[in-house]
C-alpha cells in the first residue's frame, strides 16, 4: 500500500521533475524461426515478431495515458541473430538487418536490438559473419541495434573479438561518415552483458528467457537531483543521509516502472520480466546525471570526488530498486553517456572530464564509455586498447561494462558533433596517443578469467 505523501510526491515527480518510463521493451524468442532458407527465415521472424509486437505501441500509449506517465520509447529485443541465423553469410546477415528494420517500421517501434553475438570464449561461423556484417547493417538501417559480448568474468576476454570489433567500429563510422559516424551509436561492445535489459543499443533476448517477455526501463535523474536539492537546507545533512534520500527516491521510481510494465504485459498476455532502474539522462536541461553531481557540491562531473559520488549514487539506486521490486534486472544503476547528457558533454568540452577520468568512473557506474565521440583518425589498435581496458574493468570487478565509442570521420578533438534527438551532441574528446599502433592487442587469444571466476 502507498502512503498519501508517497502518492503526492510521485505525482510531483511526473509533473515537474521529468519522471517517465524511458522504455518498454518486448523481448521475442526467435529460436523456433530457424531455417537454412533465408527467405523462409525472414518470413518466420516477420510473422513471429509482428504477431507479438503489433499492439505494443498502442498498449503502451493507453496504459501511459491511464496513469499520466509517458512511455517514451517502445522497443523490441530478439534472440541473438548470430545464433538463430548461424548458417547465413555476412551478406545474408545484412539482408536480415534490412528485414528487421522494415519490421520495426511496420510496428512503429523506435529500435530493435539483437543483431548480436556472444563471443567471450571464441567465434563460431555465425558470429564471424555477423561481426563482418555489422558495419553495413548499421549504416544502411535506421532502427537496428547491435551488441557483441566479448568478455565475461567466467571466460575472460576474447582479444581476437576485441580487435575485430575495433575494425568493425571503424568501418561502421566510415560508412556513415555523412552522419558523423552515427552508425556507431547503435553498437555496443560488452563485458558481462545482461540478458534482460530494455535499453538500447545493447538490448537482446537471452537464451534462458521466456518465449516473449516485457522488460521496462525507468529513469529519473531529474527526480534524484530535486530530491537532493530539497534537503540541502538541512544543517544535519550528511552523505549517509543523501544516500538514503537517493535510495528512497529510486524505490518510488521503480514502483512506477513496475506498475506500468506489469499492466502492459497483462494487456498483451505476455510474461513480465524485469524493471531496469537505470538513471538514463537525456539532453534536456533538468534531466541530467551531471546535474546530480552539482547538487552534491561538485562544480562539474569529472573533478576530484566524482568517482566517489558516482559510487554512492549507483549503490543507492540499486538498494532502492531492490527494495521496491523482486524483479530488478538489466543494468540498474547510473549511466554517464557523454553526448546524451548536456551537462556531461559540457564538462568534457571544458576539460573537467577527460577520457582517463571517464574510464575511472566506469569502474563504479552501470555501463562504461558510453556515447563517446573520438577523433576519426584513431587507429584500430588504440580503439581496441580502449575496448580491452573497459572489458578488463568489467571482467575483474564482475560487473557489466560496455563501450559505445564513435570515431567521427574527418573530425578531430575539440570539433563539435551533433547526433540529434536523445543521442544529443558533444565536442569530440581528446584521446591521448590515439595514433599508436601498439601490438599488444594483435597478440590475440584470450586473456584468462580472473581467479575469482572459480567460485562455484
Description:
This protein is α/β, with parallel strands linked by helices. Helices cover 43% and strands 18% of the residues. It contains 14 helices and 13 strands. Strand 3 (111-118), helix 6 (125-139) and strand 4 form a beta-alpha-beta unit. The radius of gyration is 21 Å and the shape is globular. The two termini are 39 Å apart. The model has no long low-confidence stretch (mean pLDDT 90).
- CATH class wording of the largest domain: Alpha Beta
H/E series, N to C?
HEHHEHHEHEEHEEHHEHHHHEHEEEE
Name the structural class: alpha/beta
Mean pLDDT: 90
Helix content: 40-55%
User: How many distinct beta strands?
Assistant: 13
Largest sheet: 11 strands, mixed
**What gap, in angstroms, lies between the N and C termini?**
39 Å
The tally of structural domains comes to: 2
- Supply the CATH architecture of the largest domain: Alpha-Beta Barrel
Number of helices: 14
Label the overall shape. globular
- Measured by DSSP, the beta-strand proportion falls in 15-25%
Give the C-alpha Rg.
21 Å
CATH fold-level topology of the largest domain:
Anaerobic Ribonucleotide-triphosphate Reductase Large Chain
Short description:
Helices cover 43% and strands 18% of the residues. The protein is an alpha/beta fold. It folds into 2 domains: 21-191, Alpha-Beta Barrel (Anaerobic Ribonucleotide-triphosphate Reductase Large Chain); 216-451, Anaerobic Ribonucleotide-triphosphate Reductase Large Chain (Alpha-Beta Barrel).
Amino acid at each position: 500500500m502507498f502512503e498519501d505523501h508517497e502518492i503526492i510526491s510521485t505525482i510531483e515527480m511526473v509533473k515537474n521533475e521529468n519522471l517517465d518510463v524511458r522504455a518498454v521493451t518486448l523481448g521475442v524468442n526467435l529460436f523456433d524461426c530457424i531455417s537454412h532458407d533465408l527467405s523462409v527465415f525472414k518470413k518466420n521472424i516477420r510473422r513471429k515478431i509482428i504477431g507479438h509486437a503489433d499492439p505494443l505501441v498502442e498498449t503502451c500509449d493507453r496504459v501511459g495515458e491511464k496513469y499520466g506517465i509517458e512511455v517514451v520509447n517502445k522497443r523490441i529485443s530478439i534472440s541473438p541473430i548470430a545464433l538463430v541465423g548461424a548458417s547465413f553469410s555476412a551478406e545474408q546477415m545484412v539482408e536480415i538487418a534490412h528485414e528487421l528494420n522494415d519490421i520495426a517500421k511496420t510496428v512503429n517501434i523506435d529500435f530493435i536490438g539483437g543483431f548480436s553475438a556472444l563471443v567471450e570464449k571464441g567465434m563460431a561461423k555465425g558470429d564471424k559473419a555477423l561481426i563482418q556484417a555489422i558495419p553495413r547493417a548499421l549504416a544502411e538501417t535506421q532502427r537496428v541495434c547491435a551488441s557483441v559480448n566479448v568478455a565475461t568474468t567466467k571466460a575472460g576476454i576474447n582479444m581476437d573479438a576485441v580487435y575485430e570489433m575495433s575494425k568493425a567500429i571503424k568501418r561502421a563510422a566510415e560508412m556513415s561518415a555523412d552522419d558523423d559516424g552515427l552508425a556507431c551509436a547503435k553498437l555496443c561492445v560488452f563485458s558481462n552483458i545482461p540478458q534482460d535489459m530494455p535499453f538500447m543499443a545493447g538490448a537482446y533476448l537471452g537464451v534462458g528467457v521466456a518465449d516473449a517477455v516485457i522488460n521496462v526501463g525507468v529513469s529519473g535523474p531529474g527526480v534524484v537531483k530535486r530530491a537532493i536539492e530539497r534537503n540541502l537546507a538541512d544543517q544535519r545533512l550528511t552523505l549517509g543521509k543523501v544516500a538514503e534520500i537517493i535510495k528512497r527516491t529510486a524505490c518510488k521510481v521503480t514502483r512506477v516502472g513496475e506498475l506500468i510494465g506489469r499492466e502492459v504485459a497483462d494487456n498483451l498476455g505476455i510474461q513480465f520480466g524485469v524493471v531496469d532502474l537505470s538513471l538514463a539522462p537525456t539532453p534536456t536541461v533538468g534531466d541530467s546525471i551531471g546535474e546530480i553531481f552539482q547538487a552534491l557540491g561538485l562544480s562539474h562531473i569529472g573533478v576530484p570526488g566524482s568517482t566517489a559520488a558516482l559510487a554512492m549514487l549507483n549503490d543507492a539506486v540499486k538498494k532502492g530498486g531492490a527494495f521496491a521490486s523482486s524483479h530488478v534486472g538489466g543494468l540498474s544503476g547510473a549511466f554517464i553517456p557523454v553526448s546524451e547528457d548536456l551537462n556531461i558533454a559540457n564538462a568534457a568540452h571544458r576539460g573537467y572530464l577527460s577520457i582517463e577520468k571517464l574510464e575511472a568512473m566506469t569502474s563504479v557506474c552501470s555501463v562504461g564509455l558510453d556515447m563517446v565521440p573520438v577523433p576519426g583518425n584513431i587507429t584500430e589498435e588504440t580503439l581496441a586498447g580502449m575496448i580491452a581496458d573497459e572489458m578488463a574493468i568489467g571482467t575483474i570487478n564482475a560487473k557489466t561494462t560496455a563501450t559505445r565509442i564513435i570515431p567521427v570521420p574527418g573530425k578531430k578533438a575539440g570539433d563539435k558533433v551533433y547526433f540529434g534527438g536523445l543521442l544529443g551532441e558533444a565536442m569530440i574528446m581528446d584521446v591521448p596517443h590515439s595514433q599508436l599502433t601498439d601490438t599488444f592487442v594483435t597478440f590475440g587469444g584470450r586473456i584468462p578469467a580472473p581467479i575469482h571466476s572459480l567460485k562455484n
